[in-house]
Amino acid sequence: MQATADSTKMDCVWSNWRSQAIDLLYWRDIKQTGIVFGSFLLLLFSLTQFSVVSVVAYLALAVLSATISFRIYKSVLQAVQKTDEGHPFKAYLELEITLSQEQIQKYTDCLQFYVNNTLKELRRLFLVQDLVDSLKFAVLMWLLTYVGALFNGLTLLLMGSRLKSQALKGTLSKLTSLRDWAQQKCLKW
User: Fold this and answer.
1) Full-prediction pTM beyond 0.70?
2) Number of C-alpha atoms within 13 angstroms, CB side, residue 89?
3) Pfam families, from UniProt (predicted)?
4) Which residues contact 104 (CB under 8 A, 6 or more apart)?
5) If both were cysteines, with which of 15, 63, 85, 127 could 89 make a disulfide (CB 3.0 to 4.6 Å apart)?
6) Which tens digits make up the pLDDT trace of 99-145?
């Protein structure tokens, strides 16, 4: 009985996504379709001009600057009006966004832990729970824009693998020289 309920639920979710995709393709809601396709076009154009690292860093900086500005604005407004409304993103900070056990299969328990912690940390950083940490994150994203301007992701992967192989070669040469030294000492003795 549970399997049929789950399949019915999945069919309902699938038909909802399908109808939303059809509505976008047929331009039934012009504003929504324009926003979705315009954002997608801007993302594609950005990826042709900049590396993925730079695009992600600039998007993160844009969201951070908006949320930090809003948090500071609300804090100043509360100080001037002498109200105690609390954190402006409190409702979003208290939302449960962890992935459920049903969504994660047996072999992805470790991945679930890291995804949940990453989502919680990103929520905390982007919604400015701690202003200093969010500013540190903004500086890191700003520095990543320069890294992304200099290198693309493939170049960084190649550099990392080259450094790893050179470190392994250096370790192997040290081990062989240690072995040769030990053999010479044993032969002299």
Assistant:
1) no
2) 19
3) Reticulon (PF02453)
4) 111, 112
5) 127
6) 677 766 755 767 778 888 999 999 999 999 999 999 999 999 988 88
